[in-house]
């Protein structure tokens, strides 16, 4: 049996976590032979419901669930963590603008970035889910000067999965036969689901779908899927978000399948002309616990316009939270090109000694 890994989850008593924690405990996220320690973080007022969830987890008698600890503060919650999922965030209230949500959540993610920097394992992998996910990831990463920006990611896998699922439904293909879809940009209604490189049963998707449907209906359907779910069920996506988190982390840790890629919100190294330093969703391949942006894809004029639109939104968001982005981490976030392209190591990006990120003894 392997030694357990530590997984910290914030917003652990919320809706997404209610699906996610049970999947993690069965081994779906890291691997079916990997014991896990769950470090669950909540607001002080939600500790009692969290205790109930911990009891339920215990009652499942999961063989891989080594232990559970409950925390009402982030500093304790991320101690020694190998994986951190930042899910808890203030929800968007009625009539609240996106920019208001951004300023309400920004200080929380700055604090969490600092706590991860101070207390997590040096090899930690962080996934930001709480919205606005991309810019919250930027804030957390910029507040973690001792870690590599490549250790922080934002969830756009739900959008990627939606793209495959809805395309499968349209064409009658099994989702597993649909490969190489891309979601570019922000996890928001400006995101660009791109089918230009996608294949269905190995043949170009564009030969099998109607362009008018793609441009006039499909793109908007993916962009607005989150709102459609809120309208229909009265709550935002929870089980599908949990599934996407599992997929994102599993692939990051264990690698993407051959002949395919996935979409992940990561710090931009300037690939495809995207502003360096913002957290933008790119097509990536993962291997050995690292990811690389898929290079050399042809970008049409139509795609370029959509990619720029969502890029601009992220640049604006970055400006809105500018006072929470310390100057000392600007350089490391703007100079990633070697580590993201080399294929040798992502963590050897010159901001610190590689051994800091490549340690293999995962338990302190
Ligand atoms: P819930 O409101 O059900 O749960 C959130 C939980 O987080 C609550 O229990 C709350 O007490 C806790 N919380 C709030 N601030 C916290 C903090 N500072 N530290 C620790 N815990 C904290 O929301 P849920 O449906 O679980 O969604 C969570 C977040 O995911 C939201 O921000 C939501 O917008 C976002 N989503 C992001 C998605 C993505 O693809 N990136 C998709 C799903 C979801 O919409």
Automatic annotation (TrEMBL):
Superkingdom to which the source organism belongs: Bacteria
E.C. number: 1.1.1.37
GO molecular function: L-malate dehydrogenase (NAD+) activity
Transmembrane segments: none
EC top class named in words: oxidoreductase
Active site: 187 (proton acceptor)
UniProt keyword annotation of Repeat present: no
Catalytic activity: (S)-malate + NAD(+) = oxaloacetate + NADH + H(+)
Sequence positions that bind NAD(+): 11-17, 105, 112, 129-131
Location of the Lactate/malate dehydrogenase N-terminal domain: 5-145
PROSITE patterns in the cross-refs: MDH
Sequence positions that bind substrate: 92, 98, 131, 162
Function (record text): Catalyzes the reversible oxidation of malate to oxaloacetate.
Protein name as annotated: Malate dehydrogenase
Organism, scientific name: Tamilnaduibacter salinus
Taxonomy of the source species: Bacteria, Pseudomonadati, Pseudomonadota, Gammaproteobacteria, Pseudomonadales
Gene behind this protein: mdh
